[in-house]
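dumping this here so i dont lose it
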């Protein structure tokens, strides 16, 4: 198979791959899967301290034989390390675990209300200015949190990584991010499998000769300033998820899929760390 060519999304001096390989909960062969993803054409790899996959991600990167400069590697600092010293130590530990000199993007994984945002964002900025990361951003921030973070950061924030799929509207968040020139990076892009049995998705997929997952991913990345981070545990699914750049959904098809947002299904909502989410229109 000829590797798919993933376009990039440009913002604040970064070129982020439109589709990256997600490494949360890789229960078996994680290094092999990462190497397979890179071989299939992925140039974005997404991990986090909380995932426990950084070491295997690093092994997969080295096994792939691809030059480091060709990859866009993202990791995240857990909310348990929101204090400045802990935050910077976590970032340094991530680099050692990955076996890398820097990451391309460092994110605050979840907001931490017990620590002043100024301290956490300040640590994020220090991580960039000390060379630990090329770009910085946040994850799971509400609109109000996002606005505060942008105000506090003298360095541009590249993205807010959060749950987004055809069952969950994010119109207000998209508008807020575009106002700041930022990207929405969508995790749970197929609602952890919920969308794989959706008849509307299946009908559109049949018309294009594409799978449910490919239609879901195409719907996301066809929107301005939206990237996606799908996870896959099999070679075939890894290749399937990046093979989404050779077709285009019509305006009518995009609207049919967007209508599914009326379900307002949120998958990732851990009570111990989730903020009070913004209320979005259907």
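and the seq i came up w/
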């Amino acid at each position: 198979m000829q590797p798919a060519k993933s376009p990039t999304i440009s913002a604040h001096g970064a070129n982020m791959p439109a589709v990256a390989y997600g490494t949360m909960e890789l229960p078996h062969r994680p290094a092999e899967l990462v190497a397979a993803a890179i071989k299939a054409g992925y140039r974005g790899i997404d991990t986090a301290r909380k995932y426990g996959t950084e070491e295997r991600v690093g092994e997969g990167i080295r096994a792939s034989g691809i030059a480091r400069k060709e990859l866009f590697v993202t990791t995240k600092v857990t909310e348990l390390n929101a204090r400045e010293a802990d935050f910077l130590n976590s970032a340094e530990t991530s680099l050692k675990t990955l076996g890398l000199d820097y990451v391309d993007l460092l994110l605050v994984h979840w907001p931490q209300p017990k620590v002043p945002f100024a301290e956490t964002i300040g640590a994020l900025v220090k991580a960039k200015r000390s060379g630990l990361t090329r770009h910085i951003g946040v994850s799971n921030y509400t609109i109000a949190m996002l606005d505060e973070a942008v105000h506090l950061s003298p360095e541009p924030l590249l993205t807010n990584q959060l749950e987004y799929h055809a069952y969950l509207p994010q119109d207000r968040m998209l508008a807020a991010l575009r106002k700041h020139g930022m990207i929405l990076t969508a995790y749970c892009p197929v609602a952890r499998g919920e969308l794989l049995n959706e008849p509307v998705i299946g009908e559109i997929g049949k018309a294009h000769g594409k799978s449910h997952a490919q239609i879901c991913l195409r719907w996301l990345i066809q929107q301005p300033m939206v990237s996606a981070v799908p996870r896959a545990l099999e070679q075939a699914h890894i290749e399937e998820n990046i093979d989404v750049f050779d077709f285009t959904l019509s305006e009518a098809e995009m609207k049919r899929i967007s209508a599914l947002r009326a379900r307002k299904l949120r998958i990732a909502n851990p009570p111990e760390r989730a903020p009070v989410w913004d209320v979005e229109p259907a």
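The first strand starts at residue 8 and ends at 11.
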